[in-house]
Design brief:
heterodimer; A: about 270 residues; mainly alpha; 11 helices; B: about 270 residues; 13 helices; globular
Chain lengths: ~270, ~270
């Protein structure tokens, strides 16, 4: 009996160790004065200093954050409109078609999204760079916002809308004073998911970027291909901190929702 | 009055679907019929059925299968044990947290861990096995891929286990079912939806990984994703790249059909 209780704990502990070891490995060596990822020679903060002195990298971080915030905001607006459109579609067939089309970009591999957007932007004649990356990020963030907001609209009691109308509310009033306040948690969750999608994206950006415009993921890729440099470690330590702050925020936002649905499913 | 307002919500959303869902897919199909000089041809499709590409497709599926299998084997017990813990939502969040760390950084961490003088080799040396080449092998590629996809496999399985009605397990016990029989006849069949969703979430991206194949497998493993990326960004042969993309989309649709429709909220 005692044995029975011990093994599960050991197994779970092992999984957690494996999941977190690489991350802490990175962070640990970011303080290494030796300059490699295998011999810890002494404690130093030089890599962090170098990181903050690297204006190019700081601009890239800024780019990444701007793209993430802008794309999350715009895709949230489109996504909420989409969720309302789906929820108010009368015909079942229209609803299902919209939903299937919505999920195409969620299940498509990044490579396909990236390649097809590259063709699209080239055909339109759009210069590859900030605008193309922003458009691509908006495009793949919309469906996740729809999926986060839709359940909230569906669970809403329609008699509230009728009550508002009976009391003389205009269409706009119904939207801003009844519907939007009710689905706010969903909107927040959607915005947040869009933010993490954008911050995390590598493959799509890799395809549709150009003109010297890069985001953090693409930059890390090109650095990593050249081999180990501990700047990246210092950067990852900071990003890890940032992620923890974000996740904590998200945790408190969704605490109202009972189920943990929709933690990013893309890589 | 009603229809007017509904159309209003549809406008931005349908625009988005037309521009970023339907058009890119059609463009990929269109381009697959053109060779590198821009002549209309079926050559790309003929080329796809030559041994070179068929072998690549097969190996791609084989790796994706292995990655999915190992993820499932590790994820199922983890999810099961997680549902038994006291603060399960918190533990689940901790499992998911690493998946929010930028994918590139995790790949980069493994460059250090699996490197010639890295932690893994030091460990092997200490065990008396002796150091060996770990990076740029099939093992390292599959290990890192499983590491990356594990949280995405755990989440849907956890959700389906969590929804399981505990009285069913009691009933199975009362009727004399051993724990193995209970698992085989009750738990597993009832959580099959979660398993399917998890396999979908892992298998499709695993088919199209391309940066991991470069960083971790040193281009020894060529997946469909790598081939698409190569054709689009290196050799500039968009026609062939699109053709591979068409087959990847077909594979994707087949997998979706085979594993049934994903339930909403499992994402």
């Amino acid at each position: 009996m005692k044995n029975n209780r011990k093994w599960p704990a050991v197994y779970l502990a092992l999984i957690f160790i494996i999941l977190y070891a690489p991350i802490f490995y990175l962070i640990f060596y970011s303080f290494n004065s030796g300059g490699t990822m295998y011999q810890f020679e002494g404690f130093t903060l030089d890599w962090y200093r170098e990181l903050f002195a690297d204006t190019r990298l700081l601009i890239i971080v800024l780019n990444t954050v701007i793209i993430a915030l802008l794309s999350a905001a715009i895709s949230t607006i489109i996504g909420v409109a989409g969720a309302l459109a789906i929820a108010y579609a009368r015909k079942r067939r229209v609803k299902n078609t919209l939903l299937s089309l919505n999920n195409v970009l969620i299940v498509s591999p990044d490579v396909i999204i990236g390649a097809s957007f590259l063709i699209l932007f080239t055909m339109i004649g759009l210069k590859l760079g900030f605008v193309s990356v922003l458009l691509a990020h908006i495009a793949f963030s919309v469906p996740i916002v729809v999926l986060m907001v839709l359940p909230k609209i569906e669970e809403m009691n329609t008699s509230m809308i009728y009550a508002a109308m009976d009391l003389g509310a205009s269409r706009l009033d119904v939207l801003t004073k009844v519907i939007l306040p009710y689905i706010t948690p969903g909107i927040f969750a959607g915005f947040f998911m869009a933010l993490t999608y954008s911050l995390d994206d590598f493959a799509v950006t890799f395809f549709v970027t150009g003109n010297g415009f890069t985001t953090l993921s693409v930059e890390i890729y090109s650095l990593a291909r050249r081999g180990v440099s501990l700047n990246i470690n210092a950067l990852s330590a900071l990003l890890f901190l940032f992620t923890i702050i974000l996740v904590t925020g998200y945790y408190f936002i969704t605490k109202r929702n009972e189920k943990p649905n929709g933690m990013g499913v893309r890589q | 009055m009603r229809t007017n307002s509904r159309n209003f919500y549809l406008i931005p959303y349908v625009l988005w679907i037309a521009l970023f869902v339907v058009t890119p897919l059609l463009l990929v199909l269109y381009y697959s019929f053109f060779d590198i000089e821009g002549h209309f041809t079926f050559e790309n499709y003929r080329k796809f059925f030559t041994p070179v590409y068929l072998k690549m497709t097969l190996s791609s599926f084989w790796y994706a299968f292995l990655i999915t299998l190992f993820s499932l084997l590790i994820a199922y017990p983890t999810a099961y044990l997680l549902t038994k813990t006291k603060h399960k939502q918190l533990w689940l969040l901790l499992i998911i947290l690493p998946s929010w760390i930028n994918l590139l950084l995790k790949a980069y961490a493994f460059l250090g861990i699996f490197g010639t003088y890295g932690a893994a080799n030091s460990f092997l040396e200490a065990m008396g096995i002796g150091g060996r080449q770990i990076l740029f092998t099939d093992f390292s590629f599959i290990f890192v891929s499983v590491y990356i996809f594990l949280p995405f496999m755990i989440l849907p399985i956890f959700n389906s286990l969590d929804e399981l009605n505990p009285t069913l397990l009691d009933a199975s016990n009362d009727l004399g079912g051993s724990s193995w029989v209970t698992f085989k006849r009750v738990i597993f069949p009832l959580t099959l939806d979660g398993v399917k969703a998890g396999c979908q979430i892992v298998f499709i991206p695993a088919l199209s990984l391309f940066m991991l194949t470069r960083l971790i497998a040193g281009n020894r493993v060529i997946t469909l994703g790598t081939a698409i990326e190569q054709h689009f960004l290196v050799t500039q042969d968009w026609g062939m790249g699109s053709t591979i993309a068409v087959f990847l989309i077909i594979a994707m649709v087949l997998i979706m059909v085979l594993t049934g429709r994903r339930k909403r909220g499992i994402l």
